[in-house]
């Protein structure tokens, strides 16, 4: 029996086509379809085919039309005319088509909504069409676009873009493709590994497809789900078999003899995803569409909208409310679908959904399976949390509780670990399980695994929030500038911003996802915090503005506990002060509840014994730094914190911050707490003496400043220190003649604290210093002596001549480089201070030193000796001493006071005056 070969071929193509459509539709439903789009997709819009593009180069080069090696022709053109004329030629060709519109092929690609689109076309037709919808594709034109991608869907222009001048056309471009587009080629290879691929708009014979095929064919050797190539015209048996063996199924449309190739492609695309396009017509169908999300304990409104596309055009969201459109006449009711109502009420932040209204008193619950392990994570017991999550993952997998398995495994691999190999292996195993659930699970399991992969595993849920908050940050910056210039704004940006951030925190906390330690999450917090600072600045401006017209919609009088709780541990410490300074703020306003939270949380950290000392120190520092820039609502709580704060070298900066807060807010301290503060200071100083805490010695000036305030305000000597440890050390020095120079080790203590020491301790110091005044020059420490003179402790009468000689021995300025500390500048400042306190006489100084040589070396010296009252010199003085101290120290007569005041006024008028402390604490 003789078989009709054409009939057999047609039947085979029909079967292959039906099989391909079924697989492609499955991929569309699973959101795992990648469409490669070639030049054939743009021809129906009037753009040139690859052949006609090269033909125009042939004409210029006068090359025989029979030459079909397009890559070499383009290369020859480039080599002949050079880069500039080559680029100009291609631009000129495409300029003719600048008004081209997307065609029906582009429309159908948009309709089927593939996960990713990869195109070799240089034009912008496809991005114009697909990015008109709700779902946006991130356009990748060059390698550097990839790190900044924020979308779940890529549109990769793998052959570059006309505007970027990186298009791939000539032979060298193809040969060097992986070098010039390394990240893009790597990304494409990774994407095809677990997705279904469809090629349209290509010819099996052209170089473009075959170069793509060479790039990615390894991915088709068993790892890719399926790869399909649609061709408008049937191909030979042998060719189909060849590509089948390579992993690509080639098929064509039947009955297309009367259709153009573009229309044939449209006909094929229209057959895709017919079930997927079927609209939801009942509440039961709606619940069926989103019920796979039931295992989550919280779902954000915007996440949910992604799965309501079949209602696209019939409903519209307004923040957390979803309503029927006014034009939509067909409605169905949520009432009666109890499973959906329970889900909306208990697991989403939706306040109204069609005819459903959420309860006002609803209380969201953490994932009951994961919450104990997550509690350990929140308490910074990372080892305990990791072990607990691993046990949960093991149990969940056995019980086929796939959601808890996925989250628990994700957490195990993402909790901080020093073992990178272990982390990689866990991540690889998780990836393998996700792929198997997508390919072999039931419909709900597939959708849940896809949700995990596309939203959580690749951190897209964080990137999306970062993108949204960046948008609000730009809007608030514009509003702030407008407000400063007297403009008004009426919007809901602040409420929308707060909703975005709060829903992210709810999604993370309620679903127990361990991502707080990652920079991506911390960057979201930093941007959100900057938004709140701008809104707080608006409030401060609003208080001072005298205008009936100026208005800002985004105002935050003070931060709430919830805002502070979500921000403090994640915001970058250095970023806080920079932001405040950039907005001319000295502190952040916080409410009483937020302030109490900060103090209590700081105290609880000190008492935690589960976490490491290093981690405890890190957390405690975070809270203290935030308190230091916040409004102090209860100084009594700061005293409690000061009392509880541990004395060690690691805590140097924290104690410094607490001392500064106590000094700045001293007027609010109740007198009945003075003795308690003095007692703690005595304990701290004793600890410094006993354990020789070098860093803590830098805080002694602050202890002294606080003691001085206590003594002044108490009008008694309540701040007198009896430091037995210090006395013991001093007794040893006094009674061991060869150790007399060891008194130098107590320079900081004696210099700052002498006036607060017990009289018996002072007598010992005086006796030692009298002996020290007699030591030989080679043992005499001039820096030590000058420090005690300047602190009015001891004037070293026997050493005045040698001190004068040393003070006037100013080093020559070194040319070409600067040293730190600057010995020349330090000696000049010491000389200035010794003259100012009348320890040295100017006439004696002039005999030894030409003071004119010291001009422009120190603002203090220029002020005293050269009457330099210019704005430039005043600014240097104010920066060094603070406004209040500058006036007290340098305002010796009316002329000098006027110079200082004039500078302050000029800075205020130009809005350049930063809030400088009135007290120079150092």
Describe the structure.
This protein has 44 helices and 11 strands. Mean pLDDT is 86; it is low at 915-922. It is mainly α and 922 residues long. Strands 3-4-2-1-5-6-7 form a 7-stranded parallel β-sheet, with helices on both faces. A 4-stranded mixed β-sheet has the order 8-9-10-11, covered by helices on one side. Helices cover 56% and strands 5% of the residues.
Q: Which residue ranges are poorly predicted, with pLDDT under 50 across at least 5 consecutive positions?
A: 915-922
Question: What fraction, in percent, of the residue positions are helical?
Answer: 55-70%
- Write down the overall geometry: elongated
Secondary structure: number of strands: 11
Assess the beta-strand content as a share of residues: under 5%
Widest β-sheet, arrangement of strands: 3-4-2-1-5-6-7
Judged by helices, strands and strand pairing, the structural class is mainly alpha
Radius of gyration computed on alpha carbons: 38 Å
End-to-end separation in angstroms reads: 106 Å
Please tell me the overall pLDDT.
86
Largest sheet geometry: 7 strands, parallel
Please give the count of helices.
44
Oligomer: single chain
């Amino acid at each position: 029996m003789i078989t009709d070969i054409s009939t057999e071929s047609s039947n085979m193509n029909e079967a292959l086509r039906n099989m391909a459509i079924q697989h492609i539709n499955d991929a569309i439903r699973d959101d795992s379809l990648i469409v490669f789009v070639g030049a054939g997709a743009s021809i129906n819009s009037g753009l040139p085919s690859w052949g006609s593009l090269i033909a125009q180069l042939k004409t210029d080069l006068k090359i025989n039309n029979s030459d079909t090696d397009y890559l070499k022709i383009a290369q020859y053109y480039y080599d002949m005319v050079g880069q500039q004329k080559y680029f100009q030629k291609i631009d000129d060709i495409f300029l003719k088509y600048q008004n081209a519109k997307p065609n029906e092929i582009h429309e159908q690609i948009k309709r089927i909504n593939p996960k990713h689109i990869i195109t070799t076309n240089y034009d912008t037709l496809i991005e114009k069409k697909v990015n008109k919808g709700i779902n946006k594709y991130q356009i990748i034109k060059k390698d550097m676009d990839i790190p900044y991608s924020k979308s779940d869907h890529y549109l990769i222009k793998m052959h570059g873009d006309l505007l970027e001048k990186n298009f791939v056309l000539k032979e060298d471009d193809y040969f060097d493709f992986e070098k010039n587009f390394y990240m893009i080629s790597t990304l494409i290879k990774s994407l095809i590994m677990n997705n279904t691929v469809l090629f349209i708009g290509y010819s099996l014979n052209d170089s473009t497809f075959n170069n793509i095929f060479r790039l990615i064919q390894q991915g088709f050797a068993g790892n890719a789900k399926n790869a399909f190539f649609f061709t408008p015209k049937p191909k030979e048996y042998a060719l189909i078999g060849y590509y089948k063996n390579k992993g690509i199924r080639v098929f064509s449309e039947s009955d297309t003899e009367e259709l153009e190739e573009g229309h044939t492609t449209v006909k094929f695309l229209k057959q895709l995803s017919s079930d997927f396009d079927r609209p939801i017509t009942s509440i039961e169908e709606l619940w069926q569409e989103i019920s796979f999300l039931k295992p989550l304990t919280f779902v954000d409104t915007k996440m949910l909208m992604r799965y309501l596309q079949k209602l696209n055009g019939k409903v519209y969201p307004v923040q957390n409310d979803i309503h029927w459109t006014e034009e939509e006449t067909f409605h169905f009711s949520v009432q009666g679908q109890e499973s959906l109502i329970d889900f909306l009420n208990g697991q989403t932040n939706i306040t109204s959904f069609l005819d459903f209204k959420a309860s006002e008193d609803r209380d969201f619950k953490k994932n009951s399976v994961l919450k104990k392990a997550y509690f350990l994570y929140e308490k910074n017991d990372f080892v305990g949390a990791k072990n607990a999550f691993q046990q949960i993952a093991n149990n969940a997998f056995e019980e086929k509780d796939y959601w808890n398995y996925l989250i628990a495994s994700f957490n195990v691999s993402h909790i901080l670990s020093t073992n990178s190999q272990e982390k990689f292996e866990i991540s690889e195993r998780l990836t393998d399980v996700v792929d198997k659930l997508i390919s072999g699970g039931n419909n709900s399991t597939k959708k849940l695994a896809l949700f995990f992969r596309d939203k959580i595993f690749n951190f897209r849920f964080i990137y999306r929030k970062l993108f949204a908050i960046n948008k609000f940050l730009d809007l608030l910056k514009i509003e702030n500038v407008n407000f400063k210039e007297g403009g008004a704004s009426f919007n809901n940006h602040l409420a929308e911003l707060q909703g975005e951030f709060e829903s992210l925190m709810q999604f993370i906390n309620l679903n127990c996802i361990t991502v707080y330690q990652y920079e991506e999450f911390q960057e979201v917090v930093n941007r959100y915090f900057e938004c709140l600072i701008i809104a707080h600045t608006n409030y401060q401006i609003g208080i001072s503005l005298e205008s009936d017209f100026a208005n800002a919609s985004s105002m935050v009088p003070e931060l709430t506990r919830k805002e502070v709780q979500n921000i403090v541990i994640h915001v970058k410490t250095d970023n806080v002060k920079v932001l405040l300074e950039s907005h001319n703020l000295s502190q952040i306003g916080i409410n009483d509840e937020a302030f109490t939270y900060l103090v209590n949380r700081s105290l609880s950290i000190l008492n935690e014994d589960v976490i490491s000392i290093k981690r405890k120190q890190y957390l405690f520092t975070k809270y203290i730094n935030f308190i230091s820039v916040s409004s102090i609502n209860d100084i009594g709580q700061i005293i409690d914190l000061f009392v509880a704060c541990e004395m060690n070298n690691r805590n140097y900066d924290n104690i410094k911050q607490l001392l500064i807060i106590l000094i700045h807010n001293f007027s609010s301290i109740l007198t009945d707490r003075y003795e308690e503060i003095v007692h703690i200071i005595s304990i701290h100083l004793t600890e410094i003496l006993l354990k020789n805490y070098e860093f803590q010695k830098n805080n002694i000036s602050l202890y002294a400043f606080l003691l001085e305030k206590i003594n002044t305000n108490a009008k008694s000597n309540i701040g007198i220190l009896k430091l037995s440890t210090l006395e013991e050390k001093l007794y040893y020095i006094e009674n061991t003649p060869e150790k007399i120079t060891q008194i130098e080790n107590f320079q900081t203590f004696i210099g700052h604290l002498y006036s607060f020491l017990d009289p018996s301790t002072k007598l010992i110091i005086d006796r030692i210093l009298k002996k020290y005044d007699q030591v030989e020059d080679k043992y005499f420490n001039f820096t030590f002596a000058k420090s005690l003179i300047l602190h009015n402790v001891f004037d070293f009468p026997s050493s005045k001549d040698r001190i004068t000689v040393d003070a006037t021995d100013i080093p020559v300025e070194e040319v070409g480089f600067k040293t730190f500390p600057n010995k020349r500048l330090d000696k000049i400042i010491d000389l200035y201070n010794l003259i100012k306190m009348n320890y040295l006489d100017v006439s004696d100084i002039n005999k030894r030193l030409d003071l004119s040589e010291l001009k422009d070396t120190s603002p203090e010296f220029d002020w005293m000796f050269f009457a330099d009252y210019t704005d430039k010199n005043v600014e240097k003085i104010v920066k060094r001493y603070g406004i209040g101290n500058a006036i007290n120290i340098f305002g010796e007569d009316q002329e000098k006071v006027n110079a200082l005041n004039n500078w302050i006024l000029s800075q205020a008028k130009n809005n350049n005056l930063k809030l400088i402390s009135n007290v120079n604490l150092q």
